[in-house]
Amino acid sequence: MSRPYDFLTPSDLQKIGNLQVLARLVVEGFCSGLHTSPHKGFSVEFREHRQYVQGDEIRRLDWKVFGKTDRLYIREYEEETNLRATLLVDVSGSMAYAGNGISKYEYAIHLAACLAYLMLRQQDSVGLVTFDTKLRQYIPPRSRPSHLRVLLDALQQTQIGGETGLARVFHQLVPKIHRRGLLIIFSDCFSNVPELLSALAHLRHAHHEIILFQIWDRDELEFPFRQWTRFDSLETETDKRLLDPASMRAVYLENLERFRKELKDGCHRHRIDLVPMVTDKPYAEALAHYLARRMSSV
Amino acid sequence: MTFLNLIFLGGISAASIPLIIHLLHRNRFKVVKWAAMHLLEPLQRTQRRRIRLEQLLLLLVRCLIPTVLALLMARPVLTGMRSLMGAAKTSVVILLDNSYSMDVGTANRTAFIQGRDAAGRLIRALPRGSEVAVVLMGGQPTPLLDEPTFNTDRAERQLAKLQTGFGAAAVPAALEMAAGLLGKMREAHRELVVISDFQKISWADTEGADRARAAELLKKLPVPPTVTFLHISHEDQNNVSVQSLDLSRFVLGVGQKFQVRAHLKNHGDTAFPNLRVYFRVDNQERGVTQLALGPQETAQALFTHTFETPGSHVIAVEADAPDALKLDNSLLAAVPVWDRLPVLLVNGKTGRAPLEGETDFLEIALRPYSSANATLADLITTTVIEPERLHQNALKDQRVVVLANVRELYDAQLQLLEKFVRNGGGLLIFPGDRIKTAFYNTKFFNDGQGLFPARLLSLEGGLNDQDPHTSILAQRYEHPALQVFNNPRQGDLAAATVRLWYKFAEKSAAQPTASDPFVLARLGTGDPFLMEKKFGDGTVMASSVPCSAEWSNLPMRPFYLPLMQQLVTYLATKFDPPRNVDVGRPLVAVLPASLGGKTLEMTDPTGARHKLTVRSETGRALVTFSETHRPGLYLLEMPAGTNPIHFVVNTSRAESDLRQLTADQIRTAAKPFDAAVVGSWDEYQKLEQRRRYGREIWRPLLWVLLGLVVTELLLQQRIGRTR
């Protein structure tokens, strides 16, 4: 079943300045009629009736049904999950690259906003970390609905920064996030892969679940340049390379393939969920992936 | 390498265009703020080198494309080393087939005319100062000019005069002659062109080994020539030929009836149901017959004729067939016709019963028709006398005297005989039981000065059965009188048994002269059977065996008659060289000694007249003519008042079979020579143009260009990987 939202691309949504509006639009559009929690438990959300068996708490009996049918039924409620999720958003210079659409950074911000909205709606607690070479901002997880405001403000105000130093930041994060939870990382992962993987392993060691949304621009995957081009680094100002992309393309694609494979293998090894996202893909895909993961993991 | 459109070569400068584009692009780059810098690093040096190499290659290919295009438009001509000799002087030998099969075709357009024209054009097209030799392959290979000439005009003029109709092509011999000529020629660039109809018969496989030898000769030359076979083809293979003429007798006299049997053959696949065959004598039609000749069939036509006048005559048989080759439709023969030949037989032993006399068998053998009371005329008339009656009157008008078993002669008789022989008479001597050896060995032999050719040594053999006996040695006879017996149809000389014979003393001279006696034929024991001696203008012949049947059974044998007739006619007509010869053989006429030193004219079949000087020899004069390459009638004009002498030169009729080699077979024949085969002058010219001036190479260049374009595309795809 197609939903109206499916036809909105990130660039269309770009026009919506307010992150909250955007997040709601995406999540409401995405979630309508879709979202059911598999968890049962003590909650406000009614799930079903069950016949009373000896040992059940008396207070959970549904007296109204007893009154109507003279039988003893127990009321069962959806269990309220209490997930602690932290969104880690890479704001290093490399995230600033924008091909024809929005930049990777913007995409990451939007995605983070959508996820935050979705999770807060589900009463999960959500925190936020932004980083480049070092930690920029840390907002611990809360599940209050008003917390959304805080998160979105923080996201909206972040500035793009310098070089990426994922591994170091992750190592720093380990002592900060005490309770185990879900880490959702938005990054292009442009750094030394073995170091990054060891840092991720460190996080995994602290019993965190990790979903790594690797943000790609279409240009980075396809390298569509033709004429002579000088590539200026977004992170290091002195790094400039003049070359003929046509001749470079094969090598580039080869390098890319190797890079992705290395990362993918490493993530698989550490049971990290690596989700490549291209900036022209709808946010809903990321949400769907998150939800699928959420259901299977718990 | 030369260029036809030199101006387009300037286009090569277009090769710089890709370079310029490359440099321009390098300078007009665009700037991209890029994140994935680490993916831009070529990981290994080899990779970096490969990229550089590929780049260079691509640039090279791109530069080459306009270069090749410019070359292409400049129309290059590949000449290799030949550019130096394009117009260089050449030594050319042309083998022109003028065998009579080349006469096929319509009158103005025979195969030979085509071949001759091709040769003429070839000579005309030669660069100035080139050296030419033309060898005609018909009959005996003959050079057109005495030696290779630089005067191509002269060669051309001579060529234009040529006509066909010569004998069968002698291919290996002609090729060897060409090799010899090429060896003597001077220019560095040598060529051999064979212009022929490539008839099956003259290019038969059986001669393959000979041709291969000639090819070896050609290849061993210091400068091996390039060989070309120019095939003049003709389609029409229908041909009727008169293969041969058989005359019923070998010496003809006035009034003698004789038969001519003509053998005809149809070489083609068309039947001639009403073929008319004409018989002509001295150009007058004397008979006509009609016969049917199916495909590949042979037939015979029979004509009879009687000559009324003595002298030289020509008979001809002509088949009136509408076929491709007219030349072999008629066949000629020169026939000398004799008047009466009076012969005096001196009988040394008269018999009481018939056939017991010494000369009885001989008389019958010499005039068989008269003896049989037939109406036919004999050439020879005989008079038989006894030895005592041999005197001046008896010798009057006689051409030959035969002494058979004559005991001895008186001195006067001997002088008379010597005078008779010295004046040109013939003397034939047979021994017998009556002869007085002392007389023969002294006065008659006279230490070699007398008439008798040899000393009599002893009587050999015996008349009893147990006595040794012998026979005449069968051999190949060189003497004109005995040559007929080389043909087994005339009888086998060895068939007779000789019981008694005289042994002649042979004088072994270190250097035999013409006047020395010599042996014509021998017996099986090695003793001479017949000896001959020149005496003045005349000739003496002596046999070691009698002409009667007492000592041998010679007279009972079938060859006796032709043998005696031959010996007597030989002695009567003296040496008469053959009038019908094969192509290339010399014509010889024996003339009266009075003509010595004079000049006579010989008309050849083409009508050309040749002046001949009569050579004097002892007691006679000789005329020789050796330019008999062309078959046909040759006419030797005699001084006023004497009839001319006819000669006929014949060629092998093998060429009448007009089938040609197929294209494949010609190529096979050409293989040993590494020869190129062309079918026409135009083709030859093209080939020669290419050999001489090189080949235009725009076509391969075009392929190169296409290849380059495709390479460029592939390279670009490989480097850029399509998006």
CATH level-two architecture of the largest domain in chain B: 3-Layer(aba) Sandwich
Provide a count of the helices of chain A.
Answer: 10
Q: Report helical residue fraction of chain B.
A: 25-40%
Uncertain spans of chain B, ≥5 residues at pLDDT below 50?
81-85
Question: Residue ranges of chain A: pLDDT <50 for 5 or more in a row?
Answer: 1-7, 35-43
Total number of beta strands of chain B: 35
Class of the largest domain in chain A in CATH?
A: Alpha Beta
Helix run count of chain B:
15
The total tally of domains of chain A equals 2
Comma- or semicolon-separated keywords:
A: 298 residues; Rossmann fold; 2 domains; 10 strands; 41% helix; B: 723 residues; alpha/beta; Immunoglobulin-like; 5 domains; seven-stranded mixed beta sheet; six-stranded mixed beta sheet; 26% helix
Task: Report on this structure.
- The complex is a heterodimer of chains A (298) and B (723).
- With 298 residues, chain A is an alpha/beta fold.
- Chain A folds into 2 domains: 240 residues, Rossmann fold (3-Layer(aba) Sandwich); 33 residues, no CATH class.
- Chain A contains 10 helices and 10 strands.
- In chain A, the strands form 3 sheets. Chain A has a 6-stranded mixed sheet with strand order 5-4-3-6-7-10, with helices on both faces.
- In chain A, helix 6 packs parallel to helix 7.
- Chain A starts with 9 loop residues before the first helix and ends with a helix.
- The N terminus of chain A is likely disordered.
- Chain B is of the alpha/beta class.
- Chain B folds into 5 domains: 104 residues, no CATH class; 182 residues, von Willebrand factor, type A domain (Rossmann fold, 3-Layer(aba) Sandwich), CATH 3.40.50; 84 residues, Immunoglobulin-like; 233 residues, Rossmann fold (3-Layer(aba) Sandwich), CATH 3.40.50.880; 71 residues, Immunoglobulin-like.
- Chain B has 15 helices and 35 strands.
- Chain B has a 7-stranded mixed sheet with strand order 18-17-19-20-25-24-23, with helices on both faces. A 6-stranded mixed sheet of chain B has the order 6-5-4-7-8-34, with helices on both faces. A 5-stranded mixed sheet of chain B has the order 10-16-15-12-13, with no helix packed on it.
- The longest helix of chain B has 29 residues.
- At the A-B interface, strand 8, strand 9 and helix 9 of A face strand 2, helix 2 and helix 15 of B.
